[in-house]
Specification:
The complex is a heterodimer of chains A (108) and B (118). Chain A is an all-beta fold and 108 residues long. Helices cover 0% and strands 56% of the residues of chain A. Chain A is built from no helices and eleven strands. Chain A has strands at 4-6, 11-14, 19-25, 32-38, 45-50, 55-57, 60-65, 70-75, 84-92, 95-98, 102-107. In chain A, 38% of the residues are buried. The mean pLDDT of chain A is 94. Chain B is an all-beta fold and 118 residues long. In chain B, the strands form two sheets. In chain B, strands 2, 4, 5, 6, 9, 10 and 11 form a seven-stranded mixed beta sheet that branches. A four-stranded antiparallel beta sheet of chain B has the order 1-3-8-7, with no helix packed on it. Chain B is globular, with a radius of gyration of 14 Å. Residues 99-103 of chain B have low confidence and may be disordered. The chains are: A mainly beta (108), B mainly beta (118). Chain A binds chain B through residues 4, 8, 31-32, 34, 42-46, 49, 87, 89, 91, 93-101, and chain B through 31, 33, 35, 40-45, 48, 50, 56, 91, 93, 95, 97, 102-112.
């Protein structure tokens, strides 16, 4: 079983739409959680950390459910520039596990 | 502050030839990672260093891959001999422990070294 699992998509949405991504992780002892964004032929870059209390950064909201071992990312008012692959990342004692990524296409 | 620096950016080699990738992590970052990413997949860890010590190399194919991190700063990843299936992006990353804590630190990537084996 993979450490982190995500729906690969693609999610094709119009500008202005709200879209949500989910991922699950297998190790209940995992300590910290992140969403990374990866543009085509670029390196992954940190989008935001994920906390149990939920956290928001502008149009982006991340949520962690430790009981269900489930992480989510919500993007409101999608922009064309949000088109990318979103990687769910789990940290277990300084070892970072990446999901395969969910591809988002925002269309005019 | 300079980010993680990798070279070369692109490399095309024939199978059975050797190749080496170099990485300079963010200044002060104790932990250095080498990941491999295939098309449509997430990065997969090859090896992790804490300072100069390789603390996790369980996913490194040791018959053909080797790595070193002399003096706990720069690192080199070598493949010899390369096979067709080694074509991928090799990503170097680094992180630092926040005030000695294990949690809460994040990982920063270099631009990657794109390898094509023909």
């Amino acid at each position: 079983r993979k450490e982190v699992e995500q729906d690969p998509g693609p999610f094709n949405v119009p500008e202005g739409a709200t879209v949500a991504f989910n991922c699950t992780y297998s190790n209940s002892a995992s300590q910290s959680f992140f969403w990374y964004r990866q543009d085509c032929r670029k390196e992954p870059k940190l989008l935001m950390s994920v906390y149990s209390s939920g956290n928001e950064d502008g149009r982006f909201t991340a949520q962690l459910n430790r009981a269900s071992q489930y992480i989510s990312l919500l993007i409101r008012d999608s922009k064309l520039s949000d088109s990318a692959t979103y990687l769910c990342v789990v940290n277990n004692f300084n070892k970072f596990y990446f999901g395969s990524g969910t591809k988002l296409n925002v269309k005019p | 502050e300079a980010g993680v620096v990798q070279s070369p950016r692109y490399k095309i080699i024939e199978k059975k030839q050797p190749v080496a990738f170099w990485c300079n992590p963010i200044s002060g970052h104790n932990t250095l990672y080498w990941y491999r990413q295939n098309l449509g997949q997430g990065p997969e860890l090859l090896i992790r260093y804490e300072n100069e010590e390789a603390v996790d190399d369980s996913q490194l194919p040791k018959d053909r891959f080797s790595a070193e991190r002399l003096k706990g700063v720069d690192s080199t990843l070598k493949i010899q001999p390369a096979e067709l299936g080694d074509s991928a992006v090799y990503l170097c990353a680094s992180s630092d422990r926040d005030r000695g804590q294990i949690t809460g630190n994040t990982i920063y990537f270099g631009e990657g070294s794109w390898l094509t084996v023909v």
